[in-house]
Design a protein that fits this description.
By secondary structure, the chain is α/β, with parallel strands linked by helices. The protein has one domain: NAD(P)-binding Rossmann-like Domain (Rossmann fold, 3-Layer(aba) Sandwich), CATH 3.40.50. Helix content is 34%, strand content 15%. The chain contains nine helices and nine strands. The protein has helices at residues 13-22, 50-56, 92-112, 154-173, 190-200, 215-226, 249-256, 276-282, 290-294, and strands spanning 2-6, 26-31, 41-44, 77-80, 117-123, 176-182, 185-186, 213-214, 233-238. Strands 3-2-1-4-5-6-9 form a seven-stranded parallel beta sheet, with helices on both faces. A two-stranded parallel ribbon has the order 7-8.
Length: 296
């Protein structure tokens, strides 16, 4: 497939794009900073500028596409990961403006140009737990896609708005638009640098609902979405099936989630961030986890 990938130079994108290239896709990275990786085409784009987004989506990927003389190739899909990645990087209003305007521009251009699939990064933060003022517990566990999304912070608010926009663009066009509520992204080197502290102090993972996703498995998730057609508008939780701490699910329930309803029985170390929808509908099957990499 010929794919425009926004934000491919970021923490997640720089692992997802190589995975997609390995699957045989052609990828154009639309970002403010190029990605230095063999085989990727880079285009510097300010996604908050509507005209730049339209131009990027009607652009050649590189000079070799001039050779056939058959006109401008079309994109088969857009993967939109670009965003200010959390609060406290820019002022809240600028974060909200940037994230919502960029996503609106991408959705509008992609759907009006008839690109058949858009996959966009939403977030675990939509559930309101990650950046809450004080401790916020889930309404129930495991947290699935039906859980209320009423956050307090500008980053998560922007993601909720983006989901609403995506649903509306699907309603008008009928095109496939899949939102990924991505949990805390972990790069391979972070298992050794960060996870020993998580094992010593599970409190550090409370705001992430004790979940995570390996950046390479996020590439697999995007590939699953690219290969699955006809779902319309859907959102999917994205996480590893395992916990990010050394405690069992029962120990976490006793220590952190007393009084929180449990809607079903759970495995001994099953994530509280329910990924069963993605597993059933997309064939999502993460392979990389901290236990194997740390030898635990």
């Amino acid at each position: 497939m010929r794919i425009l990938f926004t934000g491919g130079s970021g923490k997640a994108g720089r692992h997802v794009i190589p995975y997609l290239l390995e699957q045989g896709h052609r990828v154009v990275n639309a970002d403010l900073v190029p990605l230095d990786h063999p085989g990727v085409d880079n285009l510097t784009v300010d996604l908050t500028e509507n005209g730049q987004v339209w131009n990027a989506l009607t652009s050649y990927a590189a000079l070799d596409e001039l050779e056939p003389g058959t006109g401008m190739p079309k994109f088969d899909a857009v993967v939109h990961f670009a965003a200010i990645p959390r609060i406290l990087i820019k002022p809240d209003n600028e974060l909200f403006r940037t994230n919502t305007q960029a996503t609106y521009n991408v959705l509008e251009a992609a759907t009006k140009l008839g690109i058949p699939k858009v996959i966009f990064a939403s977030s675990e933060t939509t559930y309101g737990i990650c950046f809450a003022d004080g401790e916020m517990k889930p309404d129930y566990v495991p947290v699935d896609e039906a859980h209320p999304t009423v956050p307090q912070d500008s980053y998560a608010m922007s993601k909720v708005v983006n989901e609403a926009c995506a649903r509306s663009f699907h309603a008008r066009t009928g095109l496939d638009i899949y939102g990924l509520r991505i949990n805390n992204v972990i790069e391979p080197h972070e298992y050794e640098s960060d996870f020993p502290a998580y094992l010593d102090n599970p409190d550090l993972r409370r705001r992430n609902i004790f979940a995570y996703i390996d950046a390479r498995d996020l590439g697999h998730m995007v590939q699953c979405c690219l290969m699955t057609d006809g779902l319309g508008y859907e959102v999917f939780n994205v996480a590893n099936p395992d916990l990010s701490v050394g405690l069992s699910t029962d120990e976490i329930m006793a220590r952190y989630y007393q009084g929180v309803p449990k809607t079903r029985e759970m495995g001994a170390t099953e994530t509280f961030y329910d990924i069963s929808k993605a597993q059933k509908m997309l064939g999502f099957a993460p392979k990389h986890g901290w236990r194997d990499l740390l030898g635990v």
